[in-house]
Automatic annotation (TrEMBL):
Origin superkingdom: Bacteria
Gene: ruvX
The protein, known as: Putative pre-16S rRNA nuclease
Taxonomic lineage from the root: Bacteria, Bacillati, Bacillota, Bacilli, Bacillales
Family matches, as PANTHER family: POLYNUCLEOTIDYL TRANSFERASE, RIBONUCLEASE H-LIKE SUPERFAMILY PROTEIN
Source organism per UniProt: Halalkalibacter alkalisediminis
EC number: 3.1.-.-
Amino acid sequence: MRALGLDVGTKTVGMALSDELGWTAQGLSTLRRAEENPEKDFEAIKAIVEENGVDTIVIGLPKNMNGSIGTSGERSQLFADTLSEYVSCTIKMWDERLTTVAAERMLISADVSRKKRKQVIDKMAAVMILQGYLDHKGN
């Protein structure tokens, strides 16, 4: 079975999918959020879960540097709670502190243009969230 990693933002959701053995995370896509109809977001994720045999969803939990959960973290938790009404798989929250910063640095070091970075940053952050979870689970 596979795991799906999500980097949930206010405008987009970056997505990554594990291989069938649960060893590696690959970028999947970036979902542009439907502000007027949030149900579309959850239906789109549900379709990906069903199409790929996903049994675990790992959602990035943005914590403050002191470990507390702020507004962004609360939004991610609310997203997870709502998503659980659409899917029957396990949903895990994963500390995502600095994943977007690390993804940005990785893309800069790979000499990816600013325009292209903007297009893939959320997907790359989802890969880092999911890979962190997979590595932790494997140890």
